[in-house]
Amino acid sequence: MKFGQRKLSRRRLLGGAAAASAALPALHELVPHKGLHHALDAAAAEPHTPGMSMNGAAAHAAHLGTVGTVNPRTNGFDPQEMLRDFDEGRMVGAVREWELVAEEKEIEVAPGVKYAAWAYNDRVPGPTLRAREGERLRVRFTNGSKHPHTIHFHGIHPSAQDGIAGLGAGNIEPGRSTAYEFHATPFGLHLYHCHTLPLAEHIAKGLYGAFIIDPKDDRPAADELLMVMNGFDTNFDRSNEVYAVNTVAFDYMHRPVRVKRGELVRIYLVNALEFDLLNSFHIHANFFDYYPTGTRLEPRDFTDTVVQGQGERGILELRFPYAGKYMFHAHVSEFAELGWMGFFQVDE
Ligand SMILES: [Cu+2]
After folding, report:
1. What separation in Å is there between the alpha carbon of 318 and the centre of ligand 1?
2. In this predicted structure, which of 30-34, 164-168, 191-195 has the lowest mean pLDDT?
3. Ligand 1 geometric centre to CA of 195 (Å)
4. Pick from 103, 100, 180: which is nearest to 136 by CA?
5. pTM, entire model
6. What is the pLDDT of residues 123-140, one digit of tens each?
7. Cα separation of 251 and 147, whole Å?
8. Which residues are in the CB-under-5-Å shell of ion ligand 1?
9. How far, in Å, from the CA of 128 to the mean position of ligand 1?
10. pLDDT per residue over 82-110, tens digit each?
11. Cα separations in angstroms, 135 against 105, 138, 140, 181, 187
12. Residue 82: which region, alpha, beta or left (left: phi > 0; alpha: psi -120 to 50)?
């Protein structure tokens, strides 16, 4: 069977032991000579399943994770670095300014699984824009792709700056540029994304990013992490086959997020998922304070699991009292088994 003839279906991958066994050869066909999808290991595959490599057996022994990893150089961005990569732009006079360019870009979302993405500034998610409440902001946008796009910011601003068709600059055609200007308000954790129709496709292709507005008085000092929950519809059936935080499935399983015992950790958590109505974040062996949208300085919840709808986001704060490895994952088990899980490595 030729590459691509059979579709990679998450239902087949996750349909239980029998389905997983049946799906195994299909996946090999789809990603020849590349790593096995972990879901097969997790669901049912025996260590001696035909075609399973020693690496596969090792992954099985470790229970979860892909065989092999995505080399960050392939994508030109690294989920490890994205965690702490906050883009404050530059000051032009009294205005904080960024330049964003939308372009087509092939990315690797799991070992051997390529995705024809659309990206702001060559990365998915796009740069994490960060400003201070009340500042004047300017985002220069150039559409370097073959399709019309916009940038629509969440926040409070005049309608002409809203980045949708028919208002202000409207859709930005290929090769054209515009600038969005507005004030940074309210403080909190927001997002930006393309708002050209068909909307779900334009977002799901990768045109989204986090937008942090810090309150006038800083939040307490912390080790700050950005986590954008996303997914990829690799066969264009309007459901996702790969799920992740910061794009690369299972990356934080292979390379845990390193934090320090006792230190305050603040997670900016954004749900950029399309096609699935809900996503969630669950941490093992710990609890966190949760600030929905980050727009209040008092937490709403003290919990270990939070659910977010499409476009929802919030800030988590926690400390790890014990050193060791702590799993975090979508408590939507299906998403977890298709890539959305990782570890914190807590060091002394
Ligand atoms: Cu678009």
Report:
1. 35
2. 30-34
3. 6
4. 180
5. 0.85
6. 999 999 999 999 999 999
7. 30
8. 149, 194, 196, 202, 207
9. 18
10. 999 999 999 999 999 999 999 999 999 99
11. 32, 10, 16, 11, 11
12. alpha
Residue 97 to residues 129, 265, 324, 334, Cα–Cα distance (Å): 10, 28, 41, 40
Å from CA of 211 to ligand 1 middle: 18
208 φ, ψ (degrees, to nearest 5): -155, 160
CA–centroid distance, 33 to ligand 1, in Å, is: 34
